[in-house]
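Hello K.,

You asked for the raw outputs rather than the summary table, so here they are, unedited. I folded two proteins back to back in the same session to keep the settings identical. This is the first:
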Amino acid sequence: MNVFIYDIVTRIYFTAIRIAALFNSKARKWVAGRRNVFRELENLNPSEELRIWMHCASHGEFEQGRPLLEALKERYPAAELVLTFFSPSGMEHASWQELTDTAFYLPADSRKNAEKFLHLVQPDIAIFVKYELWYHYLSALHRRKIPAVLIAASFRPDQVFFRWYGGFFRKMLAHFNLILVQYRDSARLLDGIGLRKHAVCGDPRFERAANIAASDYRNEILEAFCNGKQVLIAGSTWPADEEMLSKAFASQITDNWKLLLVPHEIDRKRISHFAEQVPGTL
C-alpha cells in the first residue's frame, strides 16, 4: 500500500460512515460530532504551559490511558490536556471530564485535516492509545518534530506490520518516538522489524481496575442484586464473550454466582437475549 491507495481506502470508509448515518444512530453521532469540529478547535487559546494531546478510539481506550494521564497531571499540574476520540462512546462518557474539559472528535484522517488540526491545537506531545494509527496525523507530527508516543500497544505476528507487504504500516510505527507495549512478545516483534524505541510496561487496565476497586463506592441496587453471592464482572464484552459466559452461567457450576455484564456496545436486543439464557443471574 502507498499513500494514494490509503487515501482512497480511508475516503471510502469515511463515506460509508456518512451513508450509514442515514439509518444508524451511532454513525449519525460520528458525523454530527465532526460537523463543526474545526470551529470548536479555533476557540482553543494558545497555551504557554505544556499541552498534551491524547487520542483514544473510544471510552475503553481512554480508561486504558487514564492512569498515564493522571500521573502526568500530578507531575505537571499546570499542563493542559486535549482529548480526541474516534467513536461516540468516548465523547458520551463523562469520566473524561474529571481530567479535562477539552475533548473533541478527531477529524477524518487526511493531510489537510491533520495539518489544520495540529496548527490549531499546537500540542507539545501526542499520545495514541493501543491501536489508533492514522497515517496523516503521524506524518504531520513527524514533520513538525512533535514527539509521539504509542501506549498500551499489543502486537501479533499475523498483523500487517509484520507481513512482507506491510512497509507502509511499519512506517507509521516508525514515526513514534516511543512505543510502550503490554507484553514481551510484542517487544520482540518490534525488534524483528528494526524498531528499538520501545519498552514493556504491562497493561494499564490492571492499574485502572485496581484504582477503581480501592475507591469508596456504594450502590444499594447492586448490593441487593449481588446479595452476598460471588460476583463476576465482565467489561467491554463482545458477542463471542457473551456466548461463552451464557454457557458457563447456564451450568450448575455457577449456581451461587451473579454476573455484572458491561457490553462494549449497548444493544437492548442482545442484552435481552442474554438475560433469557441466564434468568436471575444478570
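The second followed immediately with the same parameters:
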Amino acid sequence: MPILPVLLEGLNKMIANSRRPYERDIYVELCLTVPVRLSVLVPHLNYLTRPLVFALNGSQELVSQGLRTFELCVDNLTAEYFDPMIEPVIDEIMAALWKHLEPVPYHHQHSHTAIRILGKLGGRNHKHFKPCNNLVTQSELDQEIKALFTIHGLNGEVPVSITPGVQSAIKLLEDPRLKVHYRISAFKYLSGILKLFIDTTPIPADYGAYVQDCVEKLKSEKIDENMELEESDIKDVAKLDRQQKFFCRLLEMLFFSISIPEIKDEARELIDGITTHFTLLYLGTSIISKVKKERAFFVNDNEGKAYINETAYLNALNYSLSFWDKDVRNMGIESIKKVYSATVRIFGSEEDALYSPLFRSMFYKFTHCCYNDFYHTKLGGILGLKTMFEDLGIPSSWFFKRQFELVRSVFFILRDTPETAPFEVRDLARSLVLKVLHDCNVGVSKETILEKPFQTLVGALVYDLASANPLVREVSQSSLKVLSETISVPIATIMGPCKQLLLTPIFGKPLRALPFPMQIGNIDAITFCLNLDETFLTFNDELNRLLLEALALVDAEDESLANVHRLYEYRTSKQLIELRDVCIKLLSLALAKPDFSLGSLAEARIRILGVFFKALCNKSTEIINAAHLGLKSSLQENSKLPKGIIAKRSPSDVDELVGPQKINCAWT
C-alpha cells in the first residue's frame, strides 16, 4: 500500500485541526477502519495512537471500534514492540479503559470488553494506573464571580457565585442537536456574566475633554507633563490572568452566537457595544503604557489601574475570523471595521487615527496567528491582515515599513500548510502577499532598492526560491516578478546584492547529500536564475558541477537513488519523478544558452540528448513530456542529430522508440 502512510498522516492532521466533534469523529473512524491487514498496518501503527484515544472517549460506535482495534494489537503484538509505540498516550488510553468499567450510563458491553483487555495486559494494566492523575488545577472557567441575591429564609442579600454552570452552558450553546430554548437560555446566562466584567460607572461630564487630552498626548512624540498614575489595584496577578482568559472565552461564545439565527441580532448588538467600549478603553491603556515607557525609573512609581487587556479582545476577534460559519467570520470583519471607524471618529481624521497603537497591536497579533500550528488560526490571521490592508483606510506607506514582517508570516503559512489543508488558507495567503508587494512598492526609487530594509525583504524572497515546498517556490518567483514590474527594475538587478544567500547553500553541498525535496528546490532555483534576462549566473566550475550532477540524476536508475523498500512508497516515487523533471528542464535551458560549455560543446550536447532519448522511454508522462520539450527546443536551433546517438541506446530502448508497431504511415 504505497499511499497508506500519506493517507494516515493526512487524516491525523485533519483530526488535530478539526473543531467540530462530528467532523473529528468522521476522521477518527476513517483512520481506524482502513481496509488493510495488520501486517501491512504495523509499520505505520504510530498514526493510530491519537485516533485511538479519541475513539475510546467518543460515541458508542467509535468506542466499539477503538476497543476492537486495541484488542487486536494486544493479541498480535508483543509488549516489547507495542508498549513503546503507545507510550505517549498510554495514560489517556488506560484512563478511558478504566472509565468504561463504571456503571450506567456507560454501556455494559464495553465494560466486558474493557475488562477482558485489561486482563490480557497482565501486570501492565496496573503500571499506568494512577488514581490521582486526573487532578485539574484551577482553570479560566472556574472563576468565582459573586453577585448579591435575596434568598428566602436568610437576612439581607447574600453573595453567591454565579459561574459554576459556565462550562455546562458553553456545551449547551455549542451543541446543535439541542432545542433552541436551551441554547437561548445558555446565551442569556453567559452574556449576563460577560456584562458583569464591564464597568457600569456613569460616564463623567468631562469625558469628552479627557478623550481629547488622550488623543493629543498620543499624537505628541513625548508627554511633557509629569503624569502620576493611579495606584495599582492588582492583588493577585495569576487571578487577573485567569479573569482575562475567562473574559476572552465568554467573548468567543458571544461571536459563536452569531451562528444561531434566533439570537443572532442580540449577539450582534452586544458585540458592537463591546467593540466601541474596547476602543475607548484602549485609549486610556495606551496613555498608561506610554507614561511607563517614557518615565524615569523610581521604585515608588504606581502602575496604574488594571483594565481588560487588548489581547483578550484580539484573541476573540481571531476566533471569529477563523470560524467555519461565514456569518461569524463576517462579524469579525465588521468588528475590525468598527474599531477603525471608532478610532477615526475619536482622533478626528484617518491620518491622525494612525497615531493609535491599536492598529500596530492588531497587525502584530494577526501576524503572530500566522505562525500557529492550526490551519483555522492561520486562516484567521490572514483574513485579519487582508481586512486591514484592503478594507480599511490605512495607507500603503504604513504597511511599507512592516511589509517584511507581513511577507515573512504569510510565507510561513505557505511553507507550513500541506495540500490536505483547506485550499482557502493558501489561496488567500498567495493573493495577499502579491497584492502587498505591488501596492506597497509603487513609486519606490532605485536608491531605495539598495537600502538595507528593502534588501532584507528581497533576501527573504530569494532564499525561498530554493524551498522544498513547490508552492513557496512558485509564490517567491511570482513575488520577484511583481516587484520587478512595479519598480521597473530587472529581477537579476534586484537579486544581485543578496544572490549569495541563494547560491552559497546550493553550491556548498553535493545534490546527492540532500533529501529529494531540497534537491528539487535547488535545481528549480538555478533554473529560474539561469532563465533571467541579464542573469548573474555564469558557466563556471560550480554551475558545471551542478549540471553534471543533474545529468547523472536523470540517467541513474531508481535503485541507485533510493532504498529498494522505499521505491514503492507513493511519496518517494512522486519525488523521483519531480526530481528528473526539474533536472531535464535545467539541462534543456543550459543547452539553449550560447555560452554553455560542459567539456567540449559537441560532446556535452551528445550526452544530454542521449539522456533525453532515454527519458522518452520512462513510465512517467511528466518525464516524457519534459524530455520531448527538451529535444524539441534543442533541435530547433540545430536540427542535425548527432551521429550514433540512437545506436548508443540499449536495444530495448530503441525498440521501444522505433518498433514496427509504433510506425504510422499516412497514405496519400
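The chain is about 65% helix and 0% strand.

Happy to rerun anything if the numbers look odd on your end.

Regards,
P.
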